[in-house]
Amino acid sequence: MTAQDLMARRARLLGPNVSTFYEEPLHLVRGQGTRVWDADGREYLDCYNNVPHVGHCHPRVVEAIAQQAATLNTHTRYLHEGILDYVEALTGTFAHPLDTAIMTCTGSEANDIALRMAQAVTGKTGVIASDHTYHGNTMAVSQLSRTNPPPGGYWDNMAFVPAPDSYRPLGGEGGMAHARAFAAEVEARIAELEERGHGVSCLILCPYFANEGFPALESGWLDPAIAAVRKAGGIIIADEVQPGFGRVGTHFWGHQKAGFVPDVVTLGKPMANGHPVGGVVTSAAVMAEFRTRFRYFNTFGGNPVSAAAAQATLQVLQDEGLVENARVMGDYARDGLRDLATRHDCIGDVRGSGLFFGAELVLDQDTKQPATAFAKRVANEMRQRGVLLNFLGIHYNTLKIRPPMCFSQVDADQMLETLDQVLSDLPLVA
Rounded CA gap, 290 and 120, in Å? Predict the structure, then answer.
């Protein structure tokens, strides 16, 4: 079947506007490590997908899934050690008091639960989020997205603050001046929510601000905003779906790198290397409030096969030293991007941490005018030349490089050499 045939079949069976990557969608049929192959047998270097977190089709994860599926799979109304063993291992990577968890199937479900936890703990309903974020697609969580407005508009208890931008900081100053400007926006939204009668239940954010373009923010940058929320009686929810599980290299969790302990942490995509697993980690006190006020049960969340997949993924991360690999290979790749910036004026900023990094592309380094259309052309041309990456950010002009955690120096060199060729060949036009 051709790609066009598959697209037509998708539209007929799945409905219109089902997203695909790239102008010429890929028909992938196989993966291994950092590599994937299409239906024609062409090999691609995967520099984008964090779902196969420890590498496509990692044999230890595959074996764990197969063995447990051949033994038993049912839901958590029966006793089983698997979910308990996993939650114990998972919460062992967090600081006190984050020691209990709910298992889900997706990050969307996890964020939905987190919002209800905030309501249960505070008795308030107001929610503050960034104006360029994404936290999932349940009805409640979709209200948090300013980039995909829900039909009928936003609920009155939602409030948004400008996404942080280290390249073009609020007020024109970086560092803690930028942090205080962000906190002032949070304080203004708190006042608005209190005036509307909702109060503030939570500030929900990705501690790495991944969809916002992963700005370079020092440890403690969020402290003024967090203090304002907690003073108003709200809690902090850290969405670790993208920066978690060692992705940032220096720390196991994005909030640890950012220098704070959240009240609730939500998990998803990379948790079980492609098996659909998500979760919520919190303190025993918050969990007790939630369990008292909400009757929650998830048929598939934490089932024995999912728990086995998640446990194997966590063990591979630790046994194979993949967090340290993320730090070393991320540093190496960013140094390579900085070298490219000396030869390509379109690279305005290089930033990131571990194996989540990229370059912001501009039409002019002095004005910092975003090269949005050019970034899209670059991503599509990289795909044509066998390297998969993408773009995001406030202006959709930041190349997003987020490969499996087993990314090697050979992989990094291929990505850098291909990007060098693409930037040399494509004209920089708006």
Answer: 6
Q: Which CATH number fits domain 60-319: 3.40.640.10, 3.30.420.10, 3.40.140.10, 3.90.78.10?
A: 3.40.640.10
pTM of the predicted structure, to 2 decimals: 0.97
pLDDT in tens, 3-23: 889 999 999 999 998 989 999
DSSP 149-203: PPTT---TTEEEEPPP-SSS-GGG--HHHHHHHHHHHHHHHHHHHHHTT----EE
pLDDT single digits (tens) 23-49: 999 999 999 999 999 999 999 999 999
The radius of gyration of the chain from alpha carbons, rounded to an integer in Å, stands at: 21
- pLDDT tens across 403-414, in order? 999 999 999 999
Residue 116 belongs to what H/E stretch?
A: helix 107-122
In CATH, the number for domain 3-54+321-425 is 3.90.1150.10
